[in-house]
DNA sequence: GCAATCGTGCTACCG
DNA sequence: ACCGGTAGCACGATTGCG
């Protein structure tokens, strides 16, 4: 019979010489199905050394390793664009694949073995064009018993599933949860601290809260939660920070309590996958924290900061309860109510974020072919790589092994020195997707690179400026094909979207799709220059940036020839004096001359540059500010300083009144002196980028981290540490206090005035004749300062 | 002997 | 575990003055 299903998860099961691929999905009727394919045979390639006959080598392999192999095939493949002879070695046991490949590398006539590092489940997806988060049709027989697993139907596939065009998404059951643990000694430890609350919010609308029956006894709590998960049988289980914290905690806690957390669809426990995320067989475990890097404007990546940014929760001082206070809240009858509410609200926020973000994850998953639970935990480089791998398989290009490479830097984009001060009426010209389009235009690819020792191919070559790397003109390289496809597809999607109502489900799905496509397109250049890349060829990235510099240089000359003044530029953008007719002509001329599309970006009514590159603030025509690079948008400055700078910029750009800005700054300084600012506006957040004892120098955030650790708080690399500078003796790092252990009365307001607020304000105001000293002047001195300022402005 | 200067480490930004 | 270019702070060693 034919079964149509949408693929949610895949895993492989190997037992007694048989290997099965388990495809978990949902059929058109909403049944949860498991399709088992036992016919796939894992393999790798043995690449022949120069001058060896593959059939003879195959014979030798058969003789020496016949029992480990099922079948041997002589085939031709390509490696970095060059044809190679190979023997495809089918393995009896997938677990022994890498070992067999290692042995065969030493066999005479074999230069190398490749693709033994591709895991079976990925191999299956790639080879059969089976795609996660997409519909397939499979010819299969229904199995009688579904006892081993939690599924409505189990099928045995008679052949691999076929991908269908159908682009809708079935209705998925999701369960969002939030877990709270009790500890009076810092970060809770699963061997001694209980779980006190688990709140859940399901897509069905059902909400639950699991609490200890008596005291802090959490055994029944966890068992009830586990039973509920099994009963609800969600397709997606989501939380915040669950990949790094909750699942491990629950697993450890269950071990301590002697209970089994067999909640997944194969009735096994959550397991840490080789890729680092936690996997629940047959369902998708989603950690919303893994989506946080899509929102760089959220500096401190907490559940609540992200939820508020996404508009799924409104936070106020009272909503959020800090981890340090959990135990106090729990132990106080009145406050416990608030803690329970907080937990429930957290689960609801997770649910809200899932609803907003899942579309993107599913589209990215199907685009790059990584299963849904893995795609968001995978780093950008790996997402690009899996997309490349899928295409490589189609065109017969072998997947290179990841080899350790020495780091060799190369020159990147060109950044112009800005014309400092205020400018009126400035337009930005941007090259559209400059690097991808350069790679397409000059056929830059790992498989088109012509090394210096090679003769020029018949097609001729493109030679990059400055660096002189050569790339054959034809046939098209594999990056060119991929990038052309991605850019084309994104255009098609966006055209389709224009005809749809933005409220429609289809519009949302398409929007998620085009975002996923854009992410991969934009990361291709970075991938090319990444030493960890399987297809790393430094000249590819180096040539792309060299052509980029050449492109922008040429555009600058053309702009100046056209009589447009260039006030700034960075990599693929030019800031020019705006003249409707001249810029339009320039855009056309650039496109004709360079073959790259230019689009007019922002047109600023007024823009302010400091002398520094990559830092400016512009006033848009709609009255909003566009602030770039300055303290306002940095996460490592105290909020009080950022607010002041933002307000100063607004006054300068809208009213051009340095005088007004100065008195505003002075008013904030006064408030600070009286400690009349919210405490949280004094917190400085910095990331721990390595373990605390590996720092070469003493630093405030590291000292604050040490203080937290001393009180039992577990801090991981990548965590943000919030601290304030307190009054007292010594260096700044001696006076840094974790914000959770401090109050406004501890704060050294002089530090905040002289090292935060005033420098941030002066960064802007010094271009209007205002010094840091002017900003520190008292009220009586203000009038004098204002007078001389008015002279200056004239 | 001490303040000014400079190099280094570090973080977070831009495109 | 995507690239290079860049700013700017704190720290701590070095320099320069006399």
Entry keywords:
794 residues; alpha+beta; 6-stranded antiparallel β-sheet; 22 helices; DNA-binding
Average the pLDDT over all residues and give the rounded result.
Answer: 94
User: Measured on Cα atoms, how large is the radius of gyration?
Assistant: 30 Å
- Low-pLDDT segments: none
Helical residue percent? Answer: 25-40%
Shape: globular
Discrete helix count = 22
Largest sheet: 6 strands, antiparallel
Q: How far apart, in Å, are the first and last alpha carbons?
A: 85 Å
* Structural class by helix and strand composition: alpha+beta
Strand segment tally: 29
Lateral arrangement of strands in the main beta sheet? 22-23-18-24-25-26
Amount of beta strand: 15-25%
Describe this entry's structure for a reader:
- The protein contains 22 helices and 29 strands.
- By secondary structure, it is an alpha+beta fold.
- Strands 22-23-18-24-25-26 form a six-stranded antiparallel β-sheet. The chain has a five-stranded mixed β-barrel with strand order 1-2-3-9-8. A five-stranded mixed β-sheet has the order 13-12-11-14-17.
- A hairpin with a 4-residue loop joins strand 25 (616-620) and strand 26 (625-628).
- Helix 10 (380-395) packs across helix 13 (505-528), helix 12 packs antiparallel against helix 13 and helix 17 runs antiparallel to helix 20 (749-765).
- It is globular.
- The mean pLDDT is 94.
- It binds a DNA duplex (15 and 18 nucleotides) through residues 296, 299, 379-382, 384, 409-415, 430, 434-435, 523-533, 541, 544-545, 570-573, 610, 612-615, 628-631, 633-636, 686-687, 689, 695-701, 731-733, 755, 759.
């Amino acid at each position: 019979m034919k079964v149509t299903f949408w693929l949610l998860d895949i895993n492989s099961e190997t037992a007694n010489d048989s290997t099965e691929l388990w495809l978990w999905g949902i059929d058109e009727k909403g049944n949860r199905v498991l399709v088992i394919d036992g016919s796939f045979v894992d393999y790798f390639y043995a690449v022949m050394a120069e001058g060896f006959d593959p059939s003879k080598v195959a014979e030798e392999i058969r003789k020496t390793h016949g029992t480990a192999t099922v079948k041997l095939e002589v085939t031709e493949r390509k490696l970095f664009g060059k044809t190679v002879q190979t023997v495809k070695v089918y393995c009896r046991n997938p677990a022994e694949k890498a070992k067999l490949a290692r042995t065969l590398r030493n066999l005479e006539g074999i230069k190398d073995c490749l693709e033994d590092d591709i895991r079976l489940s990925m191999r299956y997806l790639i080879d059969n064009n089976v795609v996660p988060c997409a519909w397939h049709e499979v010819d299969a027989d229904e199995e009688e018993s579904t006892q081993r697993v939690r599924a409505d139907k189990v099928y045995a596939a008679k052949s691999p599933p076929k991908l269908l065009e159908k682009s809708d998404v079935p209705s998925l059951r999701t369960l969002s949860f939030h877990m709270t643990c009790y500890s009076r000694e810092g970060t809770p430890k699963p061997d001694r601290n209980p779980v006190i609350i688990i709140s859940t919010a399901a897509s069905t609308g059902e909400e639950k809260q699991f609490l200890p029956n008596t005291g802090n006894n959490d055994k029944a709590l966890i068992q009830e939660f586990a039973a509920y998960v099994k009963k609800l049988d969600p397709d997606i289980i989501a939380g915040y920070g669950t990949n790094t914290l909750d699942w491990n905690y629950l697993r450890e806690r269950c071990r301590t309590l002697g209970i089994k957390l067999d909640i997944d669809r194969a009735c096994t426990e959550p397991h840490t996958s080789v890729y680092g995320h936690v996997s629940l067989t047959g369902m998708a475990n989603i950690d919303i924290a893994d989506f946080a890097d899509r929102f760089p404007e959220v500096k401190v990546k907490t559940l609540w900061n992200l939820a508020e940014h996404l508009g799924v929760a409104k936070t106020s001082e009272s909503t959020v309860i800090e981890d340090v206070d959990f135990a106090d809240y729990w132990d106080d009858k009145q406050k416990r109510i608030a803690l329970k509410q907080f937990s429930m609200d957290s689960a609801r926020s997770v649910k809200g974020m899932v609803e907003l973000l899942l579309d993107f994850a599913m589209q990215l998953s199907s685009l790059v072919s990584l299963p849904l639970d893995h795609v968001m935990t995978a780093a950008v480089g790996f997402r690009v790589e899996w997309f490349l791998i899928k295409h490589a398989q189609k065109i017969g290009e072998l997947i290179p092994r990841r080899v350790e490479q020495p780091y060799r830097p190369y020159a990147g984009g060109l950044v112009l020195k800005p014309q400092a001060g205020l400018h009126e009426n400035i337009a930005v010209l941007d090259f559209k997707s400059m690097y991808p389009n350069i790679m397409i235009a000059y056929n830059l690819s790992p498989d088109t690179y012509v090394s210096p020792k090679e003769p020029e191919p018949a097609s001729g070559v493109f030679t990059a400026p400055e660096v002189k790397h050569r790339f054959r003109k034809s046939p098209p390289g594999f990056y060119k094909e991929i990038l052309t496809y991605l850019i084309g597809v994104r255009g098609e999607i966006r055209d389709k979207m224009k005809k749809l109502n933005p409220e429609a489900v289809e519009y949302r799905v398409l929007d998620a799709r085009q975002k996923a496509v854009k992410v991969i397109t934009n990361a291709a250049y970075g991938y090319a220059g990444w030493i960890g890349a399987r297809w790393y060829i430094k000249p590819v990235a180096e040539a792309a940036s060299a052509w980029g510099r050449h492109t922008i240089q040429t555009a600058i000359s053309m702009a100046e020839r056209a009589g447009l003044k260039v006030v700034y530029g960075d990599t693929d953008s030019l800031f020019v004096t705006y003249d409707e007719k001249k810029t339009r002509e320039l855009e056309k001329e650039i496109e004709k001359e360079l073959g790259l599309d230019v689009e007019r970006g922002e047109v600023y009514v007024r823009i302010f540059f400091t002398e520094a590159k990559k830092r400016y603030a512009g006033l848009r025509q709609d009255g909003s500010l566009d602030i770039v690079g300055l303290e306002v948008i940095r996460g490592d400055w105290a909020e009080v300083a950022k607010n002041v700078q933002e307000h100063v910029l607004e006054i300068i750009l809208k009213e051009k009144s340095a005088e007004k800005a100065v008195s505003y700054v002075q008013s904030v300084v006064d408030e600070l002196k009286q400690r009349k600012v919210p405490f949280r506006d004094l917190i400085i957040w910095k990331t721990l980028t390595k373990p605390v004892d590996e720092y070469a120098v003493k630093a405030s955030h590291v000292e604050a981290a040490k203080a937290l650790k001393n009180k039992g708080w577990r801090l991981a690399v990548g965590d943000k540490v919030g601290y304030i500078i307190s009054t007292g003796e010594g260096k700044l790092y001696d006076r840094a206090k974790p914000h959770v252990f401090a109050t406004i009365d501890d704060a050294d307001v002089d530090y905040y005035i002289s090292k935060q607020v005033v420098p941030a304000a002066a960064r802007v105001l010094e271009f209007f004749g205002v010094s840091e000293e002017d900003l520190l002047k008292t009220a009586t001195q203000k009038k004098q300062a204002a007078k001389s300022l008015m002279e200056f402005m004239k």
